[in-house]
Design brief:
Structural class: alpha/beta
CATH class: Alpha Beta
Distance between the termini: 43 Å
Oligomer: single chain
Strand order of the largest sheet: 3-2-1-4-5-6-10
Largest sheet: 7 strands, parallel
Number of domains: 1
CATH superfamily: NAD(P)-binding Rossmann-like Domain
Number of strands: 12
Shape: globular
Helix content: 40-55%
């Protein structure tokens, strides 16, 4: 099998490339000129330089490929120019799927997010069918991914053999940016996390998440969504696990939500004037109002999604960040 992977320099995408290579697949990856390629160093892959805005280039890149994994996304909790995020996440998805349709690929796996799914927010896990509307989306990242997922689904009527996966919160090695969750771990390791908000996340090992993409290509039903997640944990519990791994004391002070939200609004206003990323992203605080719990049993049942314990995944992340100079 020859796979084409977008977003291969990112956290999930790079892990996906490694898992495909383990399976003996031939891999071609889309990379932007001048992009950070540290996550791909030493891998036997074909680099295809291009951009999601260039449909002609994408069509050429997908020639001779069997499967497309579209994992690329502009993942930021704040941006001074939201239009750029919609251009990448929505228009970019349309362009790559049009190219896949033109090349008659055997299977396409689109990486969405649990952020596009319905979520009761009270600790009851959301599923692939929990009701949701655009009005439920918080921040431009979630809004753009919601629209991108609907864009992807529109290709089903044209005969595109599409499967959608909705990763929850991956952790592990190779988080070079790092992601917002990775930054929480790094801040904890650097003892810059004195307190916490009362919220919760669904944690999955990034390697299991990558394996879920491959399983979706092989076993997923066309037109279906699959949550790629594992353990639902409060943020306090995540810090307790990190404390168990590292010996660093977990924060004990729980912050009230209202003053943090007010501070986030102030930070947002300042960032609009300065162009600098806010210390407290408003979208992140608004998301924290809900417990982002999800049920991945469909992916476990139908795909055989691996479920490595969160303790192991967090331990891998800690070791990687320490080994790669993120901890002072």
């Amino acid at each position: 099998m020859k796979a084409f992977v977008t977003g291969a320099t990112g956290f999930i995408g790079a892990s996906l490339v490694r898992e495909l290579l383990k399976d003996g697949c031939s891999v071609r990856v889309l990379v932007r000129p001048g992009s950070d390629r540290r996550n791909l160093e030493g891998l036997t892959i074909e680099l295809w330089e291009g951009d999601l805005r260039d449909g002609v280039n994408l069509r050429a890149g997908l020639e001779e490929c069997d499967v497309l994994f579209h994992a690329a996304a502009d993942y930021r909790l704040w941006t001074r120019n939201p239009a750029e995020m919609y251009e990448s996440n929505v228009a970019g998805t349309r362009n790559i799927l049009e190219a896949a349709l033109a090349n008659r690929l055997a299977r396409v796996v689109y990486t969405s997010s649990v952020g596009t799914l319905g979520n009761p927010g009270d600790g009851t896990p959301g599923t692939e069918t929990t009701p949701v509307a655009f009005a439920d989306m918080v921040g431009d990242y979630k809004k753009s991914k919601f629209l991108a997922e609907r864009e992807a689904q529109s290709f089903l009527a044209q005969g595109l053999p599409l499967v959608i996966v909705n990763p929850s919160t991956p952790v592990g090695g190779g988080d070079v940016k790092p992601t917002p969750t990775g930054k929480i771990i790094v801040d904890f390791l650097n003892r810059k996390m004195p307190a916490y908000l009362d919220t919760g996340l669904n944690i999955i090992d990034v390697t299991d998440c990558a394996r879920g993409h491959i399983l979706a290509a092989r076993k997923g039903r066309i037109g279906e969504k699959y949550i790629l997640g594992n353990e639902n944990l409060t943020l306090q519990r995540i810090f307790d696990l990190l404390a168990q791994i590292t010996g660093i004391p977990a924060p004990k002070v729980r912050l009230p939500y209202a003053p943090i939200l007010a501070a986030a609004y102030c930070n947002e206003a300042i960032s609009r004037l300065t162009g600098r990323e806010p210390l407290i992203p408003l979208a992140g605080v608004q998301m924290a109002r809900k417990f982002m719990y999800f049920d991945s049993s469909k992916a476990v049942r139908e795909l055989g999604l691996p479920q490595r314990p969160a303790l192991e995944a967090l331990g891998t992340a800690v070791e990687w960040f320490r080994s790669n100079g993120y901890v002072r």
